[in-house]
């Protein structure tokens, strides 16, 4: 958003603050006409608004995680192959490398990020780089760097260049004192993991930049995401992906959560479609900037029963991981997403039976392919 618009929005907000009888807030004009990093040039000079191009030019950070490749595929179908750039600090597989633009980007390197945004005339940024809940607890300082310091770079670059910014949040942004069944959009958020703390921080900072600088920040709180052709890395909900692979490979699965642990979950196609839909939603339809999205909610026991309808011989045993179990016990059991449904028409397609069927269709065809080769 050009900074001049950001300025008038801030000025309006200040006016409103005075009018509501609170203490007048004194902010110097200089501090609000410049981007958060106080770049020496006028920030609006860099910004390329979406209306200048037919399609947005999208950068996806952390692109080689569970969701990036799938999102790139969906966005490329919609906006054209060359308008969506996947990025990561890891080397892509040959398939990913040949499927569309891929670039090295390190979110901890501000200059590298800025160069990518400028050289590629980026207009939308999807920020997927993050350490998940269980792996974050095993490496708190790295999680703090990536999830918090990295986010600051992303926010500043986005404000400076007028980008539309999507940052996912999670069921993990809630904690033991939040209402758990169901968990509404607005309620107490006191997570007990560095992952959760960093995601509450992201929600609040994004919303702050929206109000302070006019940043077009959009955020969805994802449930545990279940995907067939990409693996989650180090989350608490990972068991719900692993069970399918182990069931097909060995007929046995060792679950690291108690059989009655209920968590909100979603099939990846629903998650990616929700992301595209909220990115495309007209600004005036968004009554908030951070939304819960929901699809289904199940326990390991319920998932096992559904999987056994396809593979009756599957044997599931339980070896509880105390770190993951404590995390899961502090998270929502059911998510209330009525605001997303009301504001921008969110509707999930997959419930548990369709999810299980689709996972087996995919994994079955993959393993038939592997045997044929
Ligand atoms: C995790 O388990 O850490 C993630 C999440 C629910 O955000 N999958």
From TrEMBL:
Name of this chain's protein: L-threonine 3-dehydrogenase, mitochondrial
Superkingdom, natural source: Eukaryota
Pfam families: Epimerase
Family the UniProt entry places it in: Belongs to the NAD(P)-dependent epimerase/dehydratase family.
GO molecular function, one term: L-threonine 3-dehydrogenase activity
Function description: Catalyzes the NAD(+)-dependent oxidation of L-threonine to 2-amino-3-ketobutyrate, mediating L-threonine catabolism.
PANTHER family: L-THREONINE 3-DEHYDROGENASE, L-THREONINE 3-DEHYDROGENASE, MITOCHONDRIAL
Catalytic activity: L-threonine + NAD(+) = (2S)-2-amino-3-oxobutanoate + NADH + H(+)
Alphabetical list of Gene3D superfamilies matching this protein: NAD(P)-binding Rossmann-like Domain
Entry EC no(s): 1.1.1.103
Biological process annotations from GO: L-threonine catabolic process
Residue intervals of the NAD-dependent epimerase/dehydratase domain: 58-293
Pathway the protein acts in: Amino-acid degradation; L-threonine degradation via oxydo-reductase pathway; glycine from L-threonine: step 1/2
